Every structure is written in structure tokens, then in C-alpha cells.
Amino acid sequence: MGQRQQQDRSQVLLRPERRGHGSPPSAKDPAAQAKLLETAGLLASWDYQVEVCTGAEVRRRLEPAVTTPGEVPVVFYPDEAWVHGRHLVGRLVGQAVAYGAELRSDTAVCEIGTGGDGSIRTVALSEGSCLDVDIVVNAAGPSASHVGGLLTRHLPMRREPGLVTRIACAQVPVRRAMHAPHIEIRPDGDASVVLHSREIDALIDTGEEPAQLARQLHESARKFVPELDNSRIAQTRVAHRPIPADGFPSVGAVPSVPGYYEAVSHCGITLGPVIGRLLASEILSGKRDEMLADFRPERFPS
């Protein structure tokens, strides 16, 4: 790899992850530490690869740039990985086009037509064309409910916005995705890192400007990784998470509309590779995979 820094896709959990909004438990909170170690023990009992170490060990062996106190317990998942979204999508689209797919970008679906038997027949696009189709896969993320609505399909979605900030730096000082108090950070190529915090997400609807929230993220990151002192905010965006109402993915066929499938999930970029394979197999074979049994779209009545 020459002079390029190799990034590790494994995960370092520097605190127990807390779902939802609010302040995360302190790494020095005895109850939080007990929960962290309890979860690690449970995973280990399932033969899941997990290591419990200290902040000092993290700095010595894994991430020398972080400021984790030496005595704080840290959970390390050596076999976990994160998917690089831009690289994955670029590669998959490129391969699809190479196999004969047609890519149409910046074009909205404005109508989905059905035949007399209710099955999918056409898709009308905003640039004026109309395509004859047999299958529609709704993988529209936050807009999935709108696309489903074109077929009078009701797909209830949560509203959970999230702010993501990309920081440009001369050299990326961390190699792994990390969950720390007040900040989550991962490398993003050779010259940037990506920041997120559920605490910051909780402030999105309070009137705070995204630029100010990004500065708070940046400050937390610099405290956690002092080598980011000379970094700068390169991009900030507020994204809307594609979360079905019950919090679980909606994947598979919608029986009431033959030819219509959904692939909607908050964890789409992580689960995308397996969801894509499972759904493609179902579409081609007509056989339902039991791995998707708990996530079928029909649990949301149209």
C-alpha cells in the first residue's frame, strides 16, 4: 500500500452503546461498566469474537492517537466490519452496467402503473419516459413511504434525522470505527474522518443550525483525538434515517401488489450486501427465504 495508511474495519466500543436520544452513560459509571462487561460476556458465550481491554491497552496496541483514560474498560470486536458506502455503491453500479443494466441518475419515479390483475406494468419517470417493467424494488430509503404511496401502499416510517460531518485532515489518525463518549468516529479514505453523535442528533429539531452542531462534533472529536486539532470541517449534512415504524427492516414481496418488493432498512449500507443477495434470489426463484421471515412487508397492512 506504499505510504497510504491501512484502515481497519474492526470496531472499538469505548462505552456501552445507548439507543435513542439523550446523554450516553459515562465510561466511569459503575452501572455502565457492568452493562458493557455483561454484554461482552454474553457475546463471548455465543463464541462471538470479543476482547475486553483497558484504555491503556487500546493506546498501546490499537489506537495510539486516542485519549481514553488508562483504567477505563474497552470492548474490541476484531471480526466486525463496516461497509464503505461510496465504494460499495460505485462498484455495484459499475458491475450492473457492465452486465447490461441501464443507469438513470437524478430522475424521480412519478408514477407506477398496474394491470387489471393489480400487478406491476409500468414506471413513469420525471424526465418524461415510461418504462415497461415486471418488477419494482422500492429501495428508496427515506423516500420509501412516498414510493409505496404511488401504489396506495402504506409503509409507516419513523422520523429520526441524523447529522453527519466529514472532517478533512492531512493524515487520518485512526484506523477503526469507534464509539466513544459523546462522539462516534471512523476513517473515511486517506484524508478524512466521519463524525456522528446521538446527543447532537437530539438537537436537530431544537433550532440549532447544522453548522453549529458540526462545530460541536468537531470539538468533541479533537478532545478524543488531539491529532485532529489542525483538521477542518469539509461537509455537513442532515440525513433522515430510513426506519420502518417498528424499527425493523421491511424486505420482500408485498403480496397485494404482484411484482412489487421492498428493501427498506436503517442499516441498509451494512445489511445491503446480504439483503441484495436474498431479495435477488427470491425474485428470480419465487421462493421465500426464511432468513427474512421476521422482516416481511406484509406486517404493515396496506
Describe it for me?
- The chain has seven helices and 14 strands.
- It has 302 residues and is α+β, with helices and mostly antiparallel strands.
- The strands form three sheets. It has an eight-stranded mixed beta sheet with strand order 2-3-1-9-10-11-8-12, sandwiched between helices. A three-stranded antiparallel beta sheet has the order 4-5-6, with no helix packed on it. The protein has a three-stranded mixed beta sheet with strand order 7-14-13.
- Strand 10 and strand 11 (192-196) form a beta hairpin.
- The model is unreliable at 1-5 and 15-27 (pLDDT under 50).
The helix count comes to: 7
- Let me know the number of strands: 14
> What is the share of helical residues?
25-40%
- From the spread of the alpha carbons, the general shape counts as globular
Percentage of β-strand residues: 15-25%
Average pLDDT rating: 88
Low-confidence stretches: 1-5, 15-27
Class from helix and strand fractions = alpha+beta
Work out the radius of gyration: 22 Å
Spatial strand sequence of the major β-sheet: 2-3-1-9-10-11-8-12
The major sheet is characterized as: 8 strands, mixed
End-to-end Cα distance, whole Å, is 52 Å
* SSE succession: EHEHEHEEEEHEEEEHHEEEH
